[in-house]
Design a protein that fits this description.
Length: 322
Amino acid sequence: MKIGVLIPVSPFESLDVVLESLECIKSLDFGEHEFKIVYVVDKNLECAEELKKKGVEVLYREEARGRRAGAINDAVKFFSDFNPKYVAIFDVDSRPERNFVLECIKVLEKDEKIFIASSKRYVNNGINLPSETVEAEYHLINFFLNKLSWKQFNGLIGVLRYEYLKRGLEEGAITEDAEFSTKMYAEGLRAEMVKTTKLYEEAPMSWKELYLQRKRWYFGGLQLWKHRKKLKGKVKFSWIMALTLSYVVIIALPLLLLSPPLILYHYRKFSKLKVVFGLAIHTLILQLAALDAFLSYVFGRDVSWGKMRRKAEFLNTKVKRI
């Protein structure tokens, strides 16, 4: 069996983060399967050159057409001669467990109706209030991913069937991952949660970064409504709930009164009670981001893409300030 592995690299990523990614990806277990790793590097010549020195294939894009969706589309075409059965997609901050790819393939092999297999996500940079708050949020997201019929693995991070990726991602969509997943569900396919492995990633390190990230997500969600008539049954219900309740997240604010005992039970640390305050800020930020995204969508304003600081950069900045 052939397996493709692709990692898009934005122009904002530092060389250190990219090399850490490579170390993790190279440590993955592919069993006896043949695999090919490709980094799609956008407008970052230093990273491209260093990756080539490390012995992996690099697809360098000077124009960065279509951002992440364009990078994935170009990589999928790049794989045409290799013709893999499955393609694993990761971000540069993705840190999958060693057995991630093989465990996802086991699930995919059991049912041809599964277009993507992935696992629960966990935050590995919970070092300040914003990132610790998102860490707590991820536990709630994991719960819903396990229960709902509509499962959306952000970024399409996981293992996908190459035959579906060849159709291409919508490069004009702000959330091309959700757009692609919606189309797959409309065809009667589904995503599957793998419980025998995990994947770690970095959360936004500031409230501003969180605000801008979620504004993009909300804006992309508004673009999805054009597909509403294509979905049916339980999936449609879950999909509608995800695209409506998340826009009025403020209604969940009173429920935070119930969160202290749950946080203590999970973390076993009194110091983590500060996350209750963080969740209150988080809820307000999400509500403002939803409103901002809605107004931008209605009035035809663009949604910007910006740099997301990584843990190492954040810590280095704090040291310099001291």
